[in-house]
């Protein structure tokens, strides 16, 4: 089997999508907005009493899976932006893997640094939340 044929198999993107969908289903069923949820509480918030960079993300995903964008923005607007960026990168990855020719500005190789960008944004958000307490999640 040639390397070229392996490049156009959507196995990687489908595994990532399947994992994300399973995670969203668990979050949608578990309801992390309730205090007695089966999902564990944030260890950073529990142990240190401070918001971690992704604090509120589970509740944001719960709200998003139920179509409540306002609540999703309330819980963690930066994580919502990161989710949109990662979704866009995944779409580009999938289409490129399937052999579609995309405009140069949308090509997956242009978006290969999306995870790094997301991590940098979340780190900056973490530091801003530590400095400015009104931005901390309830």
UniProtKB/TrEMBL annotation:
InterPro entries, A to Z: DUF2752
Pfam families xrefs: DUF2752 (PF10825)
Record has Transmembrane helix as a keyword: yes
Transmembrane segments: 12-30, 73-93, 113-132
Keywords linked to the UniProt accession: Membrane, Transmembrane, Transmembrane helix
Lineage: superkingdom: Bacteria
Name of the protein: DUF2752 domain-containing protein
Organism of origin: Corynebacterium felinum
Species lineage: Bacteria, Bacillati, Actinomycetota, Actinomycetes, Mycobacteriales
């Amino acid at each position: 089997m040639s390397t070229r044929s392996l490049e156009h198999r959507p196995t990687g993107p489908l595994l990532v999508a399947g994992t994300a969908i399973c995670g969203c289903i668990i979050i949608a069923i578990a309801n992390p907005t309730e205090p007695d949820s089966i999902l564990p509480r944030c260890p950073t918030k529990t142990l240190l009493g401070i918001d971690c960079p992704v604090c509120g993300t589970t509740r944001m995903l719960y709200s998003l899976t139920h179509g409540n964008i306002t609540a999703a923005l309330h819980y963690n607007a930066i994580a919502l932006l990161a989710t949109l960026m990662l979704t866009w990168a995944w779409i580009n990855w999938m289409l490129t893997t399937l052999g579609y020719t995309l405009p140069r500005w949308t090509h997956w190789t242009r978006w290969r640094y999306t995870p790094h960008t997301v991590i940098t944004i979340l780190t900056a958000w973490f530091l801003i939340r530590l400095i400015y307490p009104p931005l901390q999640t309830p």
